Amino acid sequence: MHDLRALRDDPARFRDGWAKRSGTTPDVDALIALDASARAAQTRKQEAEAGRNALSKQIGQAKAKKDEAEAQRLMTEVERLKGVIEAAAAEEAEKAGALRAILEAAPNLPAPDVPIGGDEEANVEARRWGSPRGLNDPKDHVALGEALGLMDFEAATRMSGSRFVALKGQLARLERALAAFMLDLHTVENGYQEVSPPLLVKDPAAYGTGQLPKFAEDLFRTGEHWLIPTAEVSLTNLYRETILDEAALATPIRMTADTPCFRSEAGAAGRDTRGMIRMHQFRKVELVSIAKPEDSAAEHERMVACAEEVLKRLELPFRTMLLCTGDMGFSALKTFDLEVWLPSQGKYREISSCSNCGDFQARRMDARFRREGQKGTEYVHTLNGSGLAVGRTLVAVLENYQNPDGSIAIPAALQPYMGGVNRID
To answer: Would you please indicate which residues are annotated as catalytic (active-site) residues?
Structure first.
């Protein structure tokens, strides 16, 4: 959500920022006109209410003097003002509602150092780590998993439809090992608190992190709840409608969770239909931070480094990309993507996205803090990132650690979580 006062005071900043984003963005002049109309209607209502209240006192005085003619005249005027109040209130509600609907669908403004571009081709590589292994005719993860008899798309499709998979035996254990390894790294070494959050949320929670109303088709709904597309929704909303003391944010609040995630992939028809890259149900270790505004940029860099460390410990080649204005998510003001090397595709693919959302989500959730000695409050900054997507990390391990005979070597960092097993045959 956006600060309406800031829009009034500096429309050029919003006009310039939204012009850099892809897709349909608001007409700033139309927004300002709607706001002016709503405020004018509010003023008319307030003036009419004040007049009605004053006349009501005069009616009592006239009746006390037994001046029925004057009392009747005043009552007629009160009735007229009542009509003015009702009409002005209706106009105010209509204009304010239209204004809010537009702002709710408007993306965050990009940070000044975000590269300008319309799509992923304009993303900028920040750094690269590791070198792809020289594999001769590498197989993809589907061929590897099915040959091992431990990856079953057919049975999953029969029961649930496309974009589902059943992992078995050592591959199921490898998935569990990856999640446990990530959680241990983030909680023991990186200072994140582990949380086991709800997987079902109501409208206000999905609205707070920006999934509603614009992206409802990307979610799965059950009754009055939504299945979370990422634990970002649950973790960030732990601080909705709260006011923190500044001392609570002396160090940013850091949370992590390993959860199933559910996405309809409504906008991904025909993309990544083979394998585990784009699933309706997948597992992810999420990172979320709540910070003071002046700390969020440094916290963003720290979060990216924490996600990168997972790939380094697993010895998986990757690159870190700064996303351009046209490729960032709706709520983000700045995003780094980590892309891991997939030998079967001969290219890097996204495995983590780490975003600083500034106060955009906090405004929608009403998450604030109060500085020491101050009466007023400020909105916190929220950050989120994958640390990492477990399914895609499993894909990367299978493909990068494959042997010519179809077996899979287990990265050294995961062997303690696999009971000492160093190879899946």
So the answer is: 263, 278, 350, 353, 392
Give residue 19's region: left, alpha or beta (phi > 0; psi -120 to 50): alpha
165 secondary structure, DSSP code: -
Please list the residues that pair with 342 across neighbouring strands.
347
Cα-flanking dihedrals φ and ψ of residue 243, to 5°?
A: -125, 115
What DSSP assignment string belongs to 38-59? Answer: HHHHHHHHHHHHHHHHHHHHHH
Q: Burial level of 317, CB count in 10 A (0-12/13-18/19+)?
A: buried
Kindly report, residue by residue over 133-157, the tens digit of the pLDDT: 989 999 999 999 999 999 999 999 9
**If you average pLDDT over every residue of the chain, what do you get?**
96
- Please report, rounded to a whole number, the percentage of residues in the chain having pLDDT higher than 90: 93
Give CA–CA dist 400/415, Å, rounded. Answer: 16
Whole-number Cα distances in Å, 42 to 33, 53, 96, 262: 14, 16, 10, 43
Neighbours of 47 (CB within 10 A): 14
Measure the CA–CA gap between 410 and 423, rounded to whole angstroms: 5
Please, how many CA atoms are within 13 Å of residue 299, restricted to the half-sphere of its CB? 29
Cis peptide before 388 (omega within 30 of 0): yes
